[in-house]
Design goal:
The complex is a heterotrimer. Chain A is mainly α. Chain A has 16 helices and no strands. By secondary structure, chain B is mostly helical. The radius of gyration of chain B is 21 Å and the shape is elongated. The chains are: A mainly alpha, B mainly alpha, C mainly alpha.
Chain lengths: 549, 216, 143
Amino acid sequence: MNPSESSVVYNTPNYLNAESGVRSWLLTRDHKRIGVMYLVLTSAAFALGGLFAMLIRIELLTPGPTIMSALTYNRMFTLHGVVMIFLFMVPAIPGIFGNFFLPLMLGAQDVAFPKLNLLSVYLYLVGAVIAVWGMIHGGADTGWTFYAPYSTTTPTKVVPILLGAFVIGFSSIVTGINFIVTTHTMRGPGLTWDRMPLFVWSIYATSVIQVLATPVLGMVLLLVAIEHAFGFGIFDPARGGDPVLFQHLFWFYSHPAVYIMVLPAMAVISEVVCAYARKNMFGYKAVAYSSLGIAFVGFFTWGHHLFTSGQSTFDAGIFGVLSMFVGIFTAIKVFNWTATLYQGAIKFTAPFAYVCGFLFFLVFGGMTGVALATVSLDVHWQDTYFVVAHFHFIMVGGTIMAFLAAIHYWWPKMFGRMYPEGWALVAACLIILGFNATFIPQFLLGNMGMPRRYYSYPAQFWPLNVASTAGATLLGFGFLLILVYLLISLRHGKVAGPNPWGSRGFEWNTPSPPSALNFPVPPVFTHGPHDYTTGAESPPSAPGEPEHA
Amino acid sequence: MPELTARAAPPLAHHFVTMRQQTEAARLGMWLFLVSEVLLFTGLFTAYSVYRFLYAGVFEEASRHGVELWAGTTNTFVLITSSLTVALAFHFARLGRGRLAAALLVVSLLLGFVFLGIKAVEYTNHFHEGQLPGKYYTFAEVQGPGASMFFTLYFIMTGLHGAHVVVGMTVLAVMAVRAWREEFGPEHYAPIEIAGLYWHLVDLIWIFLYPLLYLI
Amino acid sequence: MAHENAAELEEHHGAGRYLAVWAALCVLTVGTFLASRLSLGPPWHLLVALLIAGAKASLVALFFMHLWDQPGVNRLVFLTSLVFVALLIGLVLLDNATRFPLANPPNERTLRFQAPGGAEPHVRPGERQQGEPGAIGRPASER
């Protein structure tokens, strides 16, 4: 039976319309609705962060002041960083797709603690409101890294931003706890660890980092807020404090945090690669265990952010060596994904275009990361646009590409409608081209010595900055296009049916959109996910039937 | 033999298959939360380690002259005993002896109040002596680099710990009421168990705070 | 399922076990108090105190928190957290311990070095004092 001809029915009632009214949403315990709420909230945050980014790029169109003062510019890059990292990059993929699909992939009716899950949304919202309140009143100018002693003495409104991030941290911890417990205790019958979707493995690894690292960030931000408000002097040398201690505590979270941002992206890629190559993952165990490897080894490397801070050369040496190891696990994944694509039956769709972008940009971004982790090179590149380009390659070129792949791959499942493939490919082109135009010049600028976080620059950097801003504009149009056609598709998109891609991921064994109750009959698992070797029969499409042949 | 009173069926949530699964999930969830609490305090212990390393002599003087040994030592015994009563409360709740469990939890609460009371006395003394954090430090007997830092760390660490004591006591109070109402038994005991875990963590942290602040 | 077997592994023991652990904790508390009264040299008094605290913590974790008779995942979770505690404290302390000494905040080891003749560093009038608390970041006009 041709997968695209199987029951192309828009499932009603489903989780979206089973209950109506604002109250049913505000008090929902349904992980699918919570996923959608995260989608709305994080998308709004992304738009806000993107607005700050555009303002930054416009300011950098000319040397000297263009549209704002230096103080305003400092606020712009601070808020861009805070909003993008804490309100989007950290919560988005786990909050949206982790929440929506983890229980479906495990054969569970919900996550382990549905009420805590709802709490995590409210913690996110409260933290975001506190931070936005601070932004409205001027916002901080310290950079998202809040280095002491400036953050403890700045006259700007840094305390609400710190407290907002503190509260959002708890949202992150609660989500992490929920996912770990769900994975350990709620796997369906027959679903052993080595049959779990790779998406689950990576989200699990992300959750481990969230639980271990986020509290340290919470503590250090609290200490900065206390010192700013009360002058306790924990980081003030005149009172015996050590400003570098702040950096240690901050980066102990913030380096693993970048793995919180990239592991969920890798989780998505593992799913999308198999689905659009119609092939079992090459080296399932390697990919699964490398997620855990990244999670653990990522904790041993934070000092590479402190190479030029006054940290001892002994520690710098240790951190430099340890930083080299974490690249190994990413390399393992990239080789396995590529091997999976090799001789696969490739279906070139928008999600696949984003996978291509992801692989290219992750490799280049990752390699520049390894280069930066070399102390002698970092001395030249620290605090230049080279660093900025490196992390944007991973975060935008990596995570955002994966996010876009996820939203397109899973849009039919979540909302029962197809997005328009033609427009999606156009948007993918805009995004990938715009991305290149934005950030490749920044590598060159950084290597030439242009420092970051400066609102003006010498004339020799002018042309590349103009190129970068042009690229950013293209990138912005790409995102706007995606937003428009996705919203339109909610009403006017082609009805998707349970499995428009013919994917053999477990989550596709449900109607589209899924019903409020995930599994009237809990599924039984007899093999791993994305098993495309068992004959040419169409993938199972009926929910609840234990027919994973 | 305890009388087998008719108890309502244990509340199994819709997304769990068995009570055992639900209990295991609650336990693992609480352990993960405790891990996050441990890492929260670790930030402070890190600051403590660094500053004690840098200002070893001054910290020793500050501890000798500034904190009251009797208070810290008594509080250690208070918390250890409260851990005992909480552990016993869980033990008996699980056997279905709710009233005894509730009584033990009330004893734990009283011990918690004793702890907070002693800390209040200590804090008042520090206030009078000028042994305060950061720019408010005016204790003439111990001066020099790191002197105010000891008390900054003291107040933040014991303050955060005290906040956790208050939260723990609130949770124990709720459990005491539920135990009194005979809600717990051999099938349904997860809430009181995980409340106990939280309280034991509070004790665990104090076990390290005591020698680091009082016995330098 | 793993969790089905878990309950069978939990032994049923009497309340006496808790009392025994409590007694041991009290003894160890007295022990650590007495050990602090001995004048052990600098690294030892801290090590002894931490060892005793570790023993007490182990008793609480194993028996009051039931890690002794519960299946592996909870133990793994707790032990893993200790690894990261050690990691953070260890590497940060190592930094301060191996830095060029003057890169640390001024402390008793570095303040021993006085300029010959005890001369104070020269600061021009109106210039921000280096040692002034909170000096960095405040405008010069506001002191």
